[in-house]
Design brief:
The protein is an alpha/beta fold and 258 residues long. The chain is 17% helix and 22% strand. The protein contains 6 helices and 14 strands. The strands form 5 sheets. A 6-stranded mixed beta sheet has the order 6-5-7-8-14-13. The longest helix is centred in the middle third of the chain and has 13 residues, at 110-122. The two termini are 15 Å apart. The model has no long low-confidence stretch (mean pLDDT 93).
Length: 258
């Protein structure tokens, strides 16, 4: 599928007198005066040219994000599992298992869960883990091979993304191009991985202005018959914002490459 066929539009509303419908918003913090403002009411609409062969995924909560709702919006069945459910459930029925943001910081059952998740990958499953912060880690063993979490990030949401166009992750089921990194919001990614074992592919590198290139935003490893993905890209912001390219790449990460 072609990124150029995706689009983002904004729908506004006019009153009978042709004035735009507005809403009331306020900013109220102790250190500044209360500010009231009146932005236009608008609905953001994303038309995403997407090929998706992912039918159902399991999701295990971290600190909280809107990934389950975002994936449901594109027709993927999402089962949100508690720790107990994840430990008891036969995960082989799922196309992938997604770990919520900062799960290695907040989920005290992550160590016994890890053993089951790696067994699931080994038998052919896909596990996608989202970003964690480097302070207060419950476990420092994130995947099948070692890496650590650093503090590097790319805060420029328009920063150039260098990626290996030949890597399967950018070719199936959606052909990823530079256009898929347009319209991102707030940042590219945060708390990038460091000290990365060579068994991981690191097909993306990027940088803030004046900073060195960093390749720790996306790690992919084959383990047994399956795939482990660790990504510090800010999908938790991009998917709820309806960013077409982020959806297309996220689906690729969940998919089994042909």
């Amino acid at each position: 599928s072609d990124a150029s066929k995706s689009s983002i539009d904004t729908l506004g509303f006019l009153l009978a007198d042709k004035e735009r419908l507005k809403e009331i918003k306020s900013i109220d913090y102790n250190h500044i005066p209360n500010i009231v403002y009146f932005p236009d009411v608008a609905i953001k609409m994303s038309n995403i040219n997407l090929v998706n062969d992912v039918k159902s995924v399991a999701y295990i909560h971290g600190a909280g994000d809107l990934i389950p709702e975002s994936l449901t919006a594109i027709g993927i069945k999402v089962d949100v599992l508690s720790n107990e459910q994840a430990l008891k459930t036969d995960l082989s029925s799922y196309d992938a298992v997604i770990l919520g943001v900062r799960i290695f910081n907040v989920n005290k059952q992550i160590v016994p869960l890890q053993n089951k998740l790696l067994a699931y990958v080994n038998m052919g499953g896909t596990v996608l883990a989202q970003y964690n912060v480097n302070n207060g880690l419950i476990s420092k063993n994130f995947g099948p091979f070692p890496f650590s979490v650093g503090r590097s990030r790319v805060t420029d949401e328009l920063a150039t993304v260098h990626f290996d166009k030949n890597d399967p992750i950018f070719n199936y089921p959606n052909k990823i191009s530079e256009a898929d990194f347009e319209h991102w919001v707030q940042e590219r990614g945060l708390y990038f991985a460091e000290d990365i074992d060579k068994k991981y592919r690191t097909p993306i590198s990027m940088q803030d202005p004046g900073e060195p290139l960093h390749n720790g935003s996306l790690l992919i490893a084959q383990y047994g018959k399956g795939k482990f993905v660790y990504t510090s890209l800010s999908f938790f912001r991009q998917l709820p914002a309806g960013i077409p390219g982020a959806y297309r790449l996220f689906v690729n990460l969940l998919s089994k490459s042909k």
